[in-house]
Amino acid sequence: MLTADAGYGSEENYTLLKKKEVTAFVKYGMFDKQQNENHNNKFPFAADKLSL
To answer: What's the predicted TM-score (pTM) here?
Structure first.
């Protein structure tokens, strides 16, 4: 098991951990902002909120 802060939250690191079968708890860069209600209300059409 591994824990790390958002500085290590990259696709490359997630892929490596998955390949090595390591259970990881690693934030991604925008995690804290996306959890903030003011940020979510300010950017209702952000790319991560749109779906096809």
So the answer is: 0.53
